[in-house]
Amino acid sequence: MALGKDFISVKNLSREDIELVLDTAKKIEEMPREKQAEIAKNKILAALFFEPSTRTRLSFESAMLRLGGGVIGFADPSMSSVKKGETLADTARMAAGYSDIIAMRHPEAGSAKIAADAVDVPVINGGDGSNQHPTQTMLDLYTIRKEFGKLDGLNIALLGDLKYGRTVHSLSYALAQFPGKQYFISHESLAMPEEYKEYLKEHGVEFVETGELSSVVSELDVLYCTRVQKERFPNEEEYNKVKDAFIVGADSLKEAKDSLIVMHPLPRVNELLEDVDATPHARYFQQAKNGVPVRQALISLLLKLKI
Ligand code: CP
Fold it and tell me: Would you say the CB of residue 166 lies under 6 angstroms from ligand 1?
């Protein structure tokens, strides 16, 4: 396995690494619960969440508990010694002394790497600013592969906040390992940053940019919607200018293939209307649920546990 000590970025993962994670998740998901609960007996996960989360934190906790391990950590850094000025590296060192593996989320890009470099235990990046969200990407790919039985040859559109959205940054990198076409649909001020497009060019990946969903919707296999990341904007005025640039509803999908799936990392605000939930295209709730087996797989692989 080439995964390494930590799981910080998708950028350097090979196709084989990704397939190993997805195959392991499938294997664990198909195991009886009693067998799952033997895998990480006596191991402890420290969940250090310096930024709000529902899905990532709860599914990491659920994953470790289902593996038979225990969980410590915080969801509110103001109740930890961070409030007294303790550094991230020192906080990580303390957590490493009390646990076997760390999952963390932090508002600063590069923070997961800082923590990983400070400790000997594996560190998993649960989202670092607008940089990366690699475990989200693994569950996104798991969801797509479950649906289509493959990751190759698909037309996958990333829509919404492509500038600040860490989920689409990680997903675009990972999809570069699988031949297919990427569509970037956004307001021009929230376009996919150059570094990601350069990466795709270097890897010979076909992509198109457009400001209109309607012009491409009939070509798509996957429509991956994202929230405009209010918390990353310099001020509310800038956010208000683009917050409603894309609103996807059932009406937007009239020309879509029957087999199109709509995904969203969630939470949604108003960019994905609830009338999509009742269409056969909606997959975002199953997608979030897939976070548990995928995070069980990552914990098991990084701790080199017997599965
Ligand atoms: N998808 C995701 O990261 O959700 P949370 O912010 O709730 O963890």
Answer: no
